[in-house]
Amino acid sequence: MGLFKNSSQYKNQISVVNGKAVGNKPNLYCLFTEQCKNLLKQKGYCGIVIPSGIYTDLGTKQLREMLFDENKITGLFCFENRKTIFENVDSRFKFVVLSFEKLGILKISNSFMRHDVEELQSFPEYGSLNISVDLIKKFSPDSYSIIEFKNEQEVTIAEKVAKHPLLCGDNEGWNLELYGEEMNMTRSADSFLTRPAKFTLYEGGMIWHFTNTFSEARYWINEKDIKKDFLSKKVKRIEGLYSQPKDLKNDYETYRLAIRKIASNTNERTLITTIIPKYAIAGNSLTVNFPFQHHHKKYNELSFANDELFVLSSILNS
């Protein structure tokens, strides 16, 4: 696998999102996609069937950038395996029929959540949506992930929303900075306790609008297992701070805004937020805000007061 990482032929396999490298393990469909592009002559066409992760996963961000900037995507048809087109594959698994031409353009024809591949016969003339690459980059400036729109009305609404400031990364926005991941449910499993303790591990299923007790906790954490590591990571995030101050607080020592990360456009609600209490640790199915300022002289000052967090949660849940 090291051959692929070091080869200029596969330079789009590792993505950088929020300053961190993701997608370090080569995936065959990602390698295949990039090689198809390499083999195309100018104005040559390619059509392939690959997993839907090509338009959503963080690890394929660099491939999306390659497709957006160096090619013309002529079709992105997403379908579920409900009719067992592929044997021994879960019926909920999603595939994409991706077609592109080696020529840059700013529009994509797509269709999501289809169950009948017969619809491909009329795609993209009928049943497709046109989404501009500019809109995709506006809504997902870090990952270039493509939103699953159901109809033209949703695209129109998104275009209107995009005219307003973002939550973060915009000089006119709210400057709401969010964790990519606080604790991974797989890699950190050795730290989990199955008996109640002071530090509760919060998962996505535990929250709903305005409540953090939607379901009972499964795991708890012993602070001594995480405190030193968490403080060390926090020091690295604070510009101009080169050593750990004795009074430096960990992020879990105050209230934080939590957003459920895993959702589907078929769910009753897809944006679910609440406030989690002090001494709460977030599993990877939740994203939480960085509560303190990343400034070497203000590292224990809150970015948002507690009442401001409630206002933010109310707006996001509305």
Tell me what you see in this structure.
The protein is α+β, with helices and mostly antiparallel strands and 318 residues long. It folds into two domains: 2-161, Vaccinia Virus protein VP39 (Rossmann fold), CATH 3.40.50.150; 189-317, no CATH class. The chain contains seven helices and 14 strands. It has helices spanning 2-6, 28-39, 61-70, 133-139, 152-161, 227-237, 306-317, and strands at 15-17, 20-22, 45-51, 72-80, 94-101, 107-114, 129-132, 192-193, 199-202, 219-221, 256-260, 273-276, 280-282, 286-288. The protein has a five-stranded mixed sheet with strand order 3-5-4-6-7. It has a four-stranded mixed sheet with strand order 8-10-9-13, with no helix packed on it. Strand 1 (15-17) and strand 2 form a beta hairpin. The longest helix is centred in the first third of the chain and has 12 residues, at 28-39. The radius of gyration is 22 Å and the shape is globular. The relative contact order is 0.09. The mean pLDDT is 89.
Radius of gyration: 22 Å
The SSE string, one letter per element, is HEEHEHEEEEHHEEEHEEEEH
The assigned CATH architecture of the largest domain is 3-Layer(aba) Sandwich
CATH homologous superfamily annotation of the largest domain: Vaccinia Virus protein VP39
- Return the domain count: 2
Proportion in helices: 10-25%
Q: Point out poorly predicted stretches.
A: none
The CATH top-level class label of the largest domain = Alpha Beta
Q: How many E-type strands?
A: 14
**CATH T-level fold name of the largest domain:** Rossmann fold
